[in-house]
Model the fold of this input.
Amino acid sequence: SLIFQESEPTAKKVLVYGKGDGVNQIKATATSIGFVKGEDNVKTIRDPTIISESEAQIRADAELVQLEQNIETYVIPIENPNRNYQLGDLLTINAKSYGVDNKEVRIVRVIRGRQGDNEFLRIEVTNSNHSKTFKNSTQRINETALISQNNETYEQGSGNTQNPQGQINATNVAPLRIPLVIDNNVVDEVGNIRINQFNLDVDVDPFRKSAGTATAVSDLLVDGTSADEQPDVLNTSGTTQPNVSGNTSSETIVHNFGVDNFNEGISTSSWDPVGSITMNEDVDLIVCAIRTYSVTSASGADLWYRIEIDGVSYAVGQLNSNAQTGNEYVFNQTIPYQLSTIGKNIGFYLRSFSNSISIDGDVRAYGVSPSHTHGDGSLTANNHSHDDGNYTAANHEHNDGSYNIPTTEVENITIGDDVSDANNVNATGFTWELREVVSGVSTVRNSGIETFTGGNTFINGIDISDSGTYPNTQGQWQIWIYPNSVDADLVKAKVNIKHNLENI
Done:
């Protein structure tokens, strides 16, 4: 039985793209008669070895002839497996039940095998026109490739390029800024940004002086005043004796050194101690007091006292010559003392020169400082005035204030034409930043630090795309370049943008 298959043309339009890209793209088109856009297939072929429009057209025509044919294929079983059929043999077949009448075909495949004990032979044939065009188109394709090979053109073209650039005197805080616009010219039909090169060339030169010295034809008149200042004032006003209000601070001139109580039996044979007080202030006079509350067995007693300071006797006297039981007697003794009294001890002693008695009471000590001073306290001078005296302002400076040069004076100023370069470059390298600008806000997307070597202040081919990551959106972008010196240098830079445009 005969097996028949017919297929639609592979394509009715062929697009060939050779060397180059964008506006420099080598391309050609071949279209079948009756081609319907959107219904018939289109074949796209990319071959960078094609370097001319004529070569591209040869390739497109040859491909179309091969692809636009309806392909009729027949598989025919042969009863005699010993028949010697060869590929490429031309045959005429008849199969009226299949509508085949004297069809000229060519053998494109010979199939031999065994099924069980029997050998079999099948041949596959196709319409002879298709096989001829296939051979001819293949020859033309090979010829095109041979031309390209002979001319050694196996490389891709340069494509479209953009080179935004700028230059300015810049420092480490005032950079060179280069604006970039990534628009739909670099976007393909499915929205991809087709940039295949995005790098930076930077050259840093000595500072460029671009203007001469400003010179006035005559002395300029300046309006306005400097800023106010409060200078120090030297020298003094006239002398005045104002009245004084308020009081000095209070001072203590009498010091209480303390009290020591006693209840003692007083003998006639020795001085008996009845009290001891230690002084804690430095005074000029010491007042000592002995007070008795009751005296027993004191009829006709002859009672005497003695006062010592640090074991040295300073006062001795009779306390009472008619002491009676129950009577109270007070004795005060003032002792001038010219030495320091702080920490010294006052000793009090009693002795009866008539008969022994029992007595109780206390001893006291006070200090007086007649010579003393008072602190300022709350003294204030009453309101008063001074004569001018001989004031002078100390040396001082004024800030700029609000000076103004009248327009008529500005006309008398000239600026010389003095363009020159500094002696050397200050920077030893620079920092670059790739920035995206969205709604007026500039955001750093990529950055780097470059260092000069070997005395060279030019660096080119710096990849600013972060290995193809940026720019990743359409819109406004910027390149900022900071030389790493506080002193200005002339910074020149160029951005190299190469992109592919697919104009299908």
Observations:
- The chain has a mean pLDDT of 80.
- The first helix runs from residue 53 to 67.
